Amino acid sequence: MNKTVGILLIVIGAVMLIWTGFTYTKKEKIVDAGPIQVSADKEKTVNWPPYLGGLLVIGGIVVVATAKK
User: Membrane spanning segments where (predicted)?
Assistant: First the structure.
């Protein structure tokens, strides 16, 4: 079980090092006046620091190395 968690941490950390964030589009209402509705697509960005991915990789290696067989 611990070994699986460690491998999962390594994979997630590596992905976070490669992709430092992502962007998605959200539809937001600008005007909502009875039957008249105006909406626009807004681009949102989610970023995380690269050192967080490195910490996950290191933590995963430690978990795998200390896992009992």
Answer: 7-25, 48-67
**What 3-state DSSP class applies to 59?**
helix
List of residues 6+ apart from 21 with CB closer than 8 A:
45, 46, 47, 48
Residues ≥6 apart with Cβ < 8 Å to 10: 56, 57, 60, 61, 64
Classify 36 in phi/psi space as left (phi over 0), alpha (psi -120 to 50) or beta: beta
- 20 falls in which pLDDT band (50, 70, 90)? confident
The residues, ordered by sequence, that sit 6+ positions from 26 with a Cβ below 8 Å of its Cβ are: 41, 42, 43, 44
Per-residue model confidence (pLDDT) at position 9:
94
